[in-house]
Amino acid sequence: MRWASWLGRLFALSWLVLLWPVLGAYFHLQLSAFQVAGLSAALAAYAGVYAFFCFWGYRRRDPVFVVAEVIVLSLLALAINAISGLKTPNPFLLPLIVVGFGLRPRTGFLAILVLSAVALIDTFVGLHVAPGEAAVELAVLAPQLLLAGVAAMGLRYLLDVQAELRAARAQIARLAADEERARISRDLHDLLGHSLSLIAMKGELASRLVAASDPGGAEVREMVRLTREALREVREAVSGYRQPTLATELSAACTALEVAGIRVDVEQAIGAISREAEAVLGWAIREGVTNVIRHSGASHCSIVLSTDDGLVCAAVSDDGSGAGGGAPGTGLRGLSERVDAIGGQVEAGRRPSRGYRLRVTAPTGRPR
């Protein structure tokens, strides 16, 4: 539900209210015009960087991007405290939330400890307080800082579990539908196919027995033709029911990569989609994994299925050094034709750092 997603983003953005002590400096501290201008610029940059993460950056699980975001926010927090003359850890709470939400648990917890230490050092350096009072304040502030980061980490874990449950529920429904389609295709092939084949054979035998001059011979031959046509249509319908599905293609891809000695990570976060879109994504996974095994020389492969704003995406990436700059092969051209037929898009090429990526985007269509 898009409204729930936007509500969650606005809720995350509302945590900018934690900067209330800094806003109070405008009214309760005697700031010079230079300080007011500098503090306003730092707050605007801080709010802009955090808003970017809330609305777009949170989707990226790239640790380098998250660390860069946290470093920028932390430097702005230091600047805000220095310009305003305040000694408050509040500007460091949002970088802690970004750390907990954006990084993996082990790395994220270490980063939370480091950033909490930086916040406490910035808060207490320059303060002339008694050791006992400093110890009390430290005992109060340290758990708050750690709790902010750990709570964001727990929220990300719950959202990931929810996405996995939603994807698992959708996959169970797809598997049930696939099993029913397979049963129907078997019944069509076994019952109608067998009966129509038998009728066609009997018709051919009858046409041989009927004299060429007999007017009934033409009718028998027409019956045989219609029977053959009906048999062909049944076989086409059965082949349509047996088109590739995401569940079967993902399972086959993982098995093939493991046999080839290539580590594989699968991220499945899509729900019910149209049969045409599912077939196209299945072909994309098959083509991408085939290229990884044959040409890449990779040791790791990543398969990511995601959806956004009415589009569904399948991306197959590797860390190999296989050739990828030449003309597309037959398989890729065939995939492009299938994707173009439903209004999708194919992107294939070298990754900026290392490896090759095949990415297919298609409309989700109406779920079957």
The total count of strands amounts to 5
Low-pLDDT stretches are none
Largest sheet: 5 strands, mixed
| Average pLDDT for all residues | 82
- Specify Rg, calculated over alpha carbons: 31 Å
Number of helices: 11
Beta-strand fraction estimate: 5-15%
Taken from the alpha-carbon principal axes, the silhouette is elongated
| Helical content (DSSP H or I, runs of 4+) | 55-70%
Secondary structural class = alpha+beta
Number of domains: 3
Q: Which strand order spans the largest sheet, edge to edge or round the barrel?
A: 1-2-3-5-4
Q: Could you write a compact summary of the structure shown?
A:
This protein has 368 residues and is α+β, with helices and mostly antiparallel strands. The chain is built from eleven helices and five strands.
Describe the protein's architecture and organization.
The chain is an alpha+beta fold and 368 residues long. The protein folds into three domains: 2-128; 179-241; 246-363, 2-Layer Sandwich (Heat Shock Protein 90). It is built from eleven helices and five strands; from the N terminus they run H-H-H-H-H-H-H-H-H-E-H-E-E-H-E-E. Strands 1-2-3-5-4 form a five-stranded mixed β-sheet. The protein is elongated, with a radius of gyration of 31 Å. The model has no long low-confidence stretch (mean pLDDT 82).
